Every structure is written in C-alpha cells, then in structure tokens.
Amino acid sequence: MKKIMLVEDDVYIRDVTATRLQNEAFEIISASSGEDALSKVSSNKPDLVLMDLDLPDMYGLEVMAEMKKDQALAQVPFIIFSNNDAPEIIQKVISSGANDFFNKSQTDFSEMLAVINRHLQ
What we know:
This protein has five helices and five strands.
C-alpha cells in the first residue's frame, strides 16, 4: 500500500481528501501544518507528499525544502496544491523542486488521482 503524506490546514479539505484517498487504497499520514508534517515525516516515510502551499506556520515550499534535505526523502515526489494558480506561482513551485501543481478548487478528485498515480509509478 502506497503511503501519502497529506499536508493541509483546512480540516474539511484534509478530511475529505484523506477519506477519498483511503478509499483508493492509499495509507494517509495527515498533517495540519508545516511543523506537524516535519515532525511526522521521518517516522512515516511517504511515497508521495501532497501539500498545500499556504500553511499557517510555513510556506509549503519551505516545508518541501526542509524535507528534501533528508536523503531518504530527496526522491519522494511532491505535489503542491493551492487556490493561487498565478503563472508565476506555478513556475516558482516547479523551479523549487516540486513534481507537479494543481489548483485545489478547480481540480476534481479523478484528475487529482491521475496526477498522484502518475507520480507513484
């Protein structure tokens, strides 16, 4: 079973996304903030990280950079999702080392699942 770390501060979005991904046979490690994710990641090495960009305590790209310092996580795919999909934001996300980006309010679950599965192959 593939393990996904889901980092999202909005409880509703996190719970609904986690439940839907669990229904697709993924193991989910939920985190509500950057610090929460960093504290959980070393003991729960994920196969993929799905992370909101705007977290309450850290910017998603900062969290990703911290995680990627760990050699065990350096090759883990990171997918960033946000409601801010300005072209300069997407470019910054990809140039910072994220594997993909999608707009969470404009992407339906089947599209999100396709992006996740593509990066887990």
